[in-house]
Write a structure and sequence with these properties.
single chain, 149 residues, mainly beta, 6-stranded antiparallel barrel, 9 strands, globular
Length: 149
């Protein structure tokens, strides 16, 4: 498989001690204060930024309203649910509210519990601003689960 030319956008990782989901809004509570990022091209890069700066970038890259849908995987650390606790989602409209970070969410695959313990949100590279927004049938296609190398 050919690799894309040029540098790649980093993947972002957010960790929280618990999460709530009402069917539309995912709230990460007791969120780590930094968002971790990593990229493999042109060179391996890892680091972190304050979550507020991550959100500023989200809104700067979007249409100013945060409506761009970004694919992500929510992985919940839950021994009662077994190893298959990942949900593939589309995130949009992030905002800090009260004691948590909220995202509007559309679940693509898997299930998101109404309440869960520790979780990790793997946010795929942010798509260019000219890609379809989260409206009607113009959503990006469903992301594929990771495959073993």
């Amino acid at each position: 498989m050919d690799e894309p030319d040029g540098p790649t956008e980093p993947m972002y990782v957010q960790m929280a001690r618990r999460a709530l989901f009402d069917g539309t809004v995912l709230t990460l509570l007791d969120l780590a204060p930094a968002t971790v990022f990593l990229s493999e091209r042109p060179a391996t890069t890892v680091g972190h930024v304050p979550t507020g700066e991550f959100l500023d970038r989200w809104y700067d890259d979007a249409d100013g309203h945060g409506t761009r849908a970004v694919p992500a995987v929510l992985s919940v650390l839950d021994a009662d649910r077994g190893p298959d606790t990942d949900a593939h989602v589309l995130l949009s409209m992030p905002r800090i509210r009260d004691a948590g970070l909220e995202y509007r969410v559309r679940v693509l695959a898997g299930e998101v519990a109404a309440s869960s313990g520790a979780c990790v949100l793997f946010i795929r590279p942010m798509v260019p601003p000219d890609t379809p927004r989260e409206t009607g049938s113009s959503l990006p296609s469903r992301p594929s689960p990771p495959t073993a190398a």
